[in-house]
Amino acid sequence: MYQLKTVYVALLGLLLHSMLAITAAISHSATSTHNVWEFPNGTWVENIAVRTNGQLLVTFISSPVVYQVDPFGAKKPALVHQFPDALAALGIAEVQHDVFAVISGNWSDKTFSGTTGSFSVWKVDVRSFESRADGSIISPATVTKISDIPDGVFLNGLTLLDKKTGAILISDAGAGVVLKVNTISGEHDVIIDDPLMKPKSGAFPVLGINGIHIHDSFLYFTNTFENTFNKVQIHSDGTAVGPTVTIAHDGLGDDFAIDAAGNAYVTQGGGNTVVEITAEGAEFVIAGNLNSTVVAGSTAAQFGRTVFDRNVLYVTTNGGIVAPVDEYIIDGGKVVAIDLGV
């Protein structure tokens, strides 16, 4: 409890520091928002990927699991996999059709710290996965370990670099670097080491580069406690072409999604919002506010992939575990649908 209060006080200070960035963003009302599913209190839903059939795969920090969530409401959430010897599951991205890379490791939502060397990358194949309406499993996923990452301090975000070679990029939020991992061979190495990715000096938890995604040959990333949203052009092998550019000072940004026009939709768990950042750096709040539980503790976002929900942004949350709404309100971790109506 003391550790949680310490984190909360530290976040309040950082929120005050970044409040100008948050309040300067012009509010845009989304067409509608609704809860797809709310998990029990204490559940920290950390990241999200979307299957081609529209089903959502979400990871938890509060336990080392991947769940499938049906955004259309026909089925209850189904447990896809629980990783051994880990406290949390983190970044997730599709590397082949219906095959996903997932990070697991020991990072605790109780102490807000992790264990260096505890992180691994896994391949979760859901091509044969099937569940019943009540969430029980008919046919399980096939799960194999890609590699342990002995030097990983706090592996967090994950994005596909090259489907042909099986290469992915992973943000190490604790070390402030980007790793390249070959999902076929398991080989891995630091590929980008940039000052704008480093954790903020003296901040707790130790958290630098966080969410990462590639769009039009640029690697985009948040640095949570530096309050920045950034991009760096990369070669096809993942190495940087030139210097990193800060697009916006976006508040406490976590993970995000990018649309075809290059607009980013950044989750801000500390501000309980989702913010659109245009390619030019303008910011617009599209959901939530500091005193709202709509997307309290927002953590990640992805767009739907079917004809029915291509304009829907799915957002995961931790329910406000880190910074409760009005200092005491904590919901269960959720998946929230935001209809952008565009």
Summarize, please.
The protein is mainly beta and 342 residues long. The chain is 7% helix and 46% strand.
Helix and strand arrangement:
Elements: H1 2-24, E1 26-27, E2 32-41, E3 45-50, E4 56-60, E5 65-69, E6 78-82, E7 88-96, E8 99-105, E9 107-108, E10 113-114, E11 120-125, E12 130-131, E13 137-139, E14 142-148, E15 155-162, E16 167-172, E17 177-182, E18 188-193, E19 209-215, E20 218-223, E21 228-233, E22 245-248, E23 256-258, E24 264-268, E25 273-277, E26 283-288, E27 298-303, E28 312-317, E29 332-339
Parallel strand pairs: 1-26
Antiparallel strand pairs: 2-29, 3-4, 4-5, 5-6, 7-8, 8-11, 9-10, 11-14, 12-13, 15-16, 16-17, 17-18, 19-20, 20-21, 21-22, 23-24, 24-25, 25-26, 27-28, 28-29
What does this structure look like?
It contains one helix and 29 strands. The strands form eight sheets. A five-stranded mixed sheet has the order 1-26-25-24-23, with helices on one face. It has a four-stranded antiparallel sheet with strand order 2-29-28-27, with no helix packed on it. Strands 3-4-5-6 form a four-stranded antiparallel sheet, with no helix packed on it. By secondary structure, it is mostly beta strands. It is globular and about 50 Å long. It has one helix spanning 2-24; strands spanning 26-27, 32-41, 45-50, 56-60, 65-69, 78-82, 88-96, 99-105, 107-108, 113-114, 120-125, 130-131, 137-139, 142-148, 155-162, 167-172, 177-182, 188-193, 209-215, 218-223, 228-233, 245-248, 256-258, 264-268, 273-277, 283-288, 298-303, 312-317, 332-339.
